[in-house]
Amino acid sequence: MTSNHSSGSPDIPEQAQPETQPQQARASSSLGRWRAELAGGLAATIIGLPKNIAYGLIAFAPLGALFVSEGIMVGFVAAIVGGGLAALLGGTPALISGPSPAAALVFASVLQQLSAVAPQFASELSPEAYTTVMIVVGFLVMALAGLWQVMFGFFRLGNLIKFTPYPVIAGLLNGLALLVLLNELGNLVSLTGAFPFIILQWERTLLALLVTAIALFGGRVVRGLPSVLVALVVGSGVYYGLRYGGLLLGMRWTNAELRLGGRLGDIGSLRLSPRYFTDIWQVLSLNGMLDIFSFVITAALSVALLASTKTLLAALNVQNLSRRRSNVNRELMAQGVANIVAAGFGGIASEGSFGQSVGNYQAGGRTRLSGVAWSLLTLVGIYLFGPLIGLIPDAVVSGLLIYVALTMTDRWSLSLLVNVVRRPRQRQVFLADSLVIVLVTLVTIATNLTTGVATGVLVSIVVFVIKMSKAIVRRRYDGSSRHSKKQRDERALDVLTEHGNAIHVIELEGSLFFASADALALELDTLAGLGVGAIILDMKRLQDIDLSSVRVLEQAHARLGDSSCQLALSYARANTLVEQTLESGGLFASLPEHACFTDTDAALEYFEDSLLKHKAPQISSRVELDLADVPIFSGLRKAEFEVLHNLLHRQHYTKGQRIVHQGAPGDAMFVITRGLADVILEIPDSGRSKRLSSLAAGTFFGELALLDQSPRSANIDATQYLVCYRLDATDFERLQSSHPAISMKLLTNISRTLTTRLRYANETISELEV
């Protein structure tokens, strides 16, 4: 017997053997993914190191050199606790959160302002304990900022916060940057009571500027390493090289520490415990808190607004890199929870960091694991390298802070200011936003971030209201410069040209709300005061209207009626949101039935007819024109007219009857003496048609049949009982042979009318191009 298996083969199915390869591939892929996330977190840690130190020092700067170690730690706690929780809970994978510069400056502002109100707590606290209270109130502001952010996300305000006017954000960023820059420049100079009043510490300043330059441009020279890390290492190396035996111009440098400045010193150890939750609760029970609580709330709101905006902007950039949508409201709630917890652990508020997020993504970070790695690596780093951080020279920190200030400056606002100067013709476009940026920047520097936020939002609202009140009117024209599509004879056109300014058309666009509606009502009153008899509001491009505006239009209509001026609406009944608001607001009910038109041309035609009845009753009152009075026959002597009259055939058409068909052979011209006809174009392959114009008594159509007998280009329908005279193309050919002078006069009159029609067509094309 033969065995089913070869003697050297294991007793397992053949198809099961290769499965180890996919398992190994998956394990290798998983390990590679972990390495990439860890590399991203490491890149974020290196980039964020100077910021952790700098923003912490800014936050505790008002307390002086004795609190340097505490200041450094609040920045690291923000990175470790706030950054880690935000990564775990957030809605944007690969987003890195770190200490917020806005939070650091507000924290410092809280310490400064509380130092001025110390007497309020004199009955409850000893002077020694008051410093602790100031710090705890600062963390209370950070926790309340987080609470604001949770509320923003819970009520789904994330999308609204993204639309915060960017000039306000730019002004705040510039204000924050200048505050940091001015603070560091103040550390590099000394003030004296004698001329020149300022003593610049040259050695320390040059070292700080060297560090700043390397941080700004070092990335172009050293590839693969963050420029801030290169600046930190090189700056520290220069400091210690000069301090311990370095030579300057061939001479040993004495008093190096005095000239270059000191070092951060012992930063102590990191204490990660929620000890401040209890302290915050105890501070809330102090009587003096009632007097400053409004300040605390507004300070927290300003941190929440700016930190939320920066976070959402960073999330948008990460979204563009990864092409994965982020959940902005979840991100805000996550940031809020992270900031509440971080405040309890003794950290300032955090926000999404664009620079660290990009560095994380470029290094391989793709998920929230990279954010957790950034938090854990920062924690490990502070325990392992904490003593080395204390050795960083003050001048190097100053240089890094100057770099942070320069990179915080909003580049878009700088280009905007340049455009205001370089482009005088476009100055009006840039000026309003530039003024908001400059104002918010100056207020932020002169007062504090909270006042800067409030000022910026208020000014932006005012600018927005002014812009909207001006932009609502797209175009204005009167009936003397633009006529309806109803074609009239020359005498009627002369009357409309002379008196057509009694009809005004105002085209609206955009959104009509209370402020712009009031400006529009003022314009309506002004026109009525000038004797205008009819005003047509063209609502074709109006996108939205509020009920307050409807009420304003109702009141304007009542006032116009007292001035014998009629208000009409066109395109108002288009089954849109605008129509629904006008209906619910009661405007349709207050207007006469004839005051609402399907389009502006119909409104113009109606008021032109009314104007002709008032100004030229002899034209409009006649039931039928005498053929000799029709302008196309002007210039003919009596005998010539008799010759032509014998070739014309009088015809009658009832209302709705079709006179000529689109595409039919062109074999005659028609001259209307009574009634009205519409020119209607059938749109091929659509089943739709469009009214091009109306033809009144005294006009003609089908004139091309006399020239080239081309097919009819449109339908002509009688819209009233209509009387016209027909001139066949064959009769016109005989007229040209027997009486060429008569045919030439007729062609001249036709050409003059066609020129007028061509001019109108050009106006219509221009309107479509606008």
Strand and helix map with partners:
Elements: H1 20-60, H2 68-89, E1 97-99, H3 101-115, H4 127-154, H5 158-161, H6 166-188, E2 189-191, E3 198-200, H7 202-217, H8 227-243, E4 247-248, E5 251-252, H9 256-260, H10 275-284, H11 289-322, H12 328-345, E6 350-352, H13 354-363, H14 368-390, H15 394-408, H16 411-422, H17 427-446, H18 449-471, E7 473-478, E8 486-487, H19 490-499, E9 503-512, H20 514-529, E10 534-545, H21 547-562, E11 566-570, H22 577-585, H23 587-590, E12 596-597, H24 600-615, H25 617-620, H26 638-645, E13 649-653, E14 658-660, E15 668-674, E16 677-683, E17 688-695, E18 700-701, E19 715-718, E20 722-728, H27 729-738, H28 740-769
Parallel strand pairs: 8-17, 9-10, 10-11, 11-12
Antiparallel strand pairs: 1-6, 2-3, 4-5, 7-9, 13-20, 14-19, 15-18, 15-20, 16-17, 16-19
Structural overview:
It is a single chain. The chain has 770 residues and is α+β, with helices and mostly antiparallel strands. Helix content is 60%, strand content 12%. Strands 7-9-10-11-12 form a five-stranded mixed β-sheet, with helices on both faces. Strands 8-17-16-19-14 form a five-stranded mixed β-sheet, with no helix packed on it.
